Known about the structure:
Layout: H1 42-46, H2 120-133, H3 135-163, H4 167-171, H5 178-213, H6 221-228, H7 232-263, H8 266-290, H9 294-301, H10 305-317, H11 320-354, H12 359-400, H13 402-410, H14 418-422
Helix pairs in contact: 2-3, 2-12, 3-5, 3-12, 5-6, 5-7, 5-9, 5-12, 7-8, 7-9, 9-10, 11-12
Transmembrane segments: 139-163, 196-220, 232-261, 267-300, 320-343, 363-392
Domain Glycerophosphoryl diester phosphodiesterase membrane: 276-401
Organism: Mycolicibacterium moriokaense
Amino acid sequence: MSTDAGGSPMAGPPPPGYPPSSYSPPDYQGPPPPAYQGYPPPAYQRYPPPGYPPPGYPPPGYGPPPGYGPPPGYGPQGGYPPPGYPPPGYAPYGYPPGYGPPPIAQAIKPGVIPLRPLGLSDIFNGAVAYIRANPKATLGLTTIVVVATQLLALILSVGPLAAAGELTSTLSGGQVPTGVLVGSSVSSFAGYGATWLSGILLTGMLTVVVGRAVFGAGITIGEAWQRLRPRLWALIGFALLEGIGAALIIGVGFGVVVGIGYAVNGVAAAVVGVALGLALLALMVYLGTMLAFTPSIIVLERLQIFPAISRSFKLVRNDFWRVFGIWLLGQIVAGLVAGAVAVPFSIGGQILLISASSTVSALIAIVLLTVGSAIGQIITAPFTAGVVVLLYTDRRIRAEALDLVLQTGAAFGPGAPADSTDHLWLTRQS
Length: 430
């Protein structure tokens, strides 16, 4: 290699395989090759240089530098929060964590019913619950009254015939002396009167028991009698008035039919009798439903007969069909239960009665029939009385908001004095 005067190396010929330093490619004036028009060479389009990944892929085996993340202050564009998060400034939907919907307020239930408007199940369940809560003052009281009444009625109706030896003749349809027949009829009428009075007494005392059971308070038979005794004559007077009214309605209807039969003919009397009978039946059902609450009002509100009748009409008037339907359903349920209980006694008594050949066997048959009837009445009488009193309570709750008044007594608890709860029934709208 040679140098110039300044000691710098002189440009010499390049090594073999290298172009001269002053060499440049000649200008190419012709068209590009066909495969290269408008496109890069294929080798540079598909494959990167050796050791480099394809475009859009990171080098293999390398991740992001440690300690680095997305640039701070950046999030989803357009002002929208990430998926699953509420917008800024808004609370999440639903209740906050650890909280749920507010609990539903439950009606106060100090005794056998909740202190709110009652449904059918509330009334029926309450009528059963007060019997279970106080069996001595319900089933025990009913047993005493029913057994005593049935025994008295049996003696008065059958005793004269059995004493005269005419019991089997009477049962078989034979001739009975007039004196014996009259005596038996009078004594039977006395027995029916005793049964009627005992029914009034039982209804009144059971009304007192239910009135206490509403507050969850117990009561003895003696206490129930003390509570009823001042109201007993008013109950008897109402029952007499009700019986006289029913007798007058039936008597007037019967007289009209008989008069038409004499004045016209039997066919016209029969037609009028059927139509009039249905009308009178509807009238008696209507009056019986409108007067259904009168005994409860006399006992619990301590009203006299005619004010109690007027108040019963007022309570039932705006809800007649509901009162009638629930009362009727209660009577049907009680009748089915009483009939089911009395079936074995009825079958046995009827068999003995048909084959009775002596006074003793006839008496046994009659006793069996009476026992079956008494057991059915013992079971169902408290239930039907409870249905009526609780239905009366429901009507007062709906019409007068009595539940708010009764809650005052519920605040005292089951151990409250009797006067502190009994007087709450006296609160009424004029």
